[in-house]
Amino acid sequence: MNYVLLPILSFFVGIIVGLTGIGGASLITPMLIFIFQVPASVAVSSDVVSATLMKVIGGVKHWQQKTLDQQAVKWLALGSVPGSLGGVGILHLLKHSSELNINSMLLHLLGVMIMLVTLFALTQLLLLTFFPKLQLPSLPKFDLETKCGRILAISVGAVLGCLVGLTSVSSGSMFALVLIGFFQLDARKLVGTDISQAGILLLFTSLGHLSLGTVNWSLVLPIWLGSVPGVLIGAKLCQMAPQRPLRFVVYSILMMVSWKLVYQV
User: Fold this and answer.
1) What is the pTM of this model?
2) Degrees (nearest 5) of the Cα angle 192, 194, 196?
3) Of 264, 71, 59, 44, whose CA–CA distance to 170 is shortest?
4) 70 — alpha (psi -120 to 50), left (phi > 0) or beta?
5) Which end is more exposed in the chain, N or C (fewer Cβ atoms within 10 Å of the end residue's Cβ)?
6) Which residues cross the membrane (predicted)?
7) Cα–Cα dist 152/134, whole Å
């Protein structure tokens, strides 16, 4: 293990996260698997724990600035937290099953999750770029003042939370799509709400992964060392960098990573 290279690469991943808002798990987990040859189960657990610090710090900052929707955070978290613990529970059962190769299964599941998230985001990016006047049909908005709206929010949070517990991927990306489509938040509160709910989700998910015994602190600490200052610098550069070309490059990288995970492992 090269403990000098890991914080350096994590630093650049942090910059990408700060610049584009793309979740670090989609980049850090494959990096641990392919570059540092970390088993998938250890990579997922270590990435969940390492991502928690960034999300919690960001969530607290947005809460102080009042740039988040507290009701959306609350009702999504009520579903995503138990959902994520359920996902970790599934991992726990699979880990103790001698008939299943958990690392091989996780590699393919990671690939599918990253591919789906990237395809959704890339499709949205291309539509906005080439068809800026295209009016897509709007999805029904979750009304959190009603019982039905709250149940729908909790249900969506539970499904996505379970996927995060299993793979570490999409704590930000898939929830951002939900916040845009079903909560219809304005841009000012979208990022803060997304980061805050992800911080709560990952905080509890981390506790579940710690119970699995697959968290490697010799990976977590170097990732923190690089990614935390990286994301702060990326956030500063965000106002100057051209977002769409940068996102297209990152999405292309993610597509290649997911293809390798699904078809070449």
Assistant:
1) 0.73
2) 65
3) 44
4) alpha
5) N
6) 6-25, 32-53, 73-94, 106-131, 151-183, 219-238, 245-263
7) 28
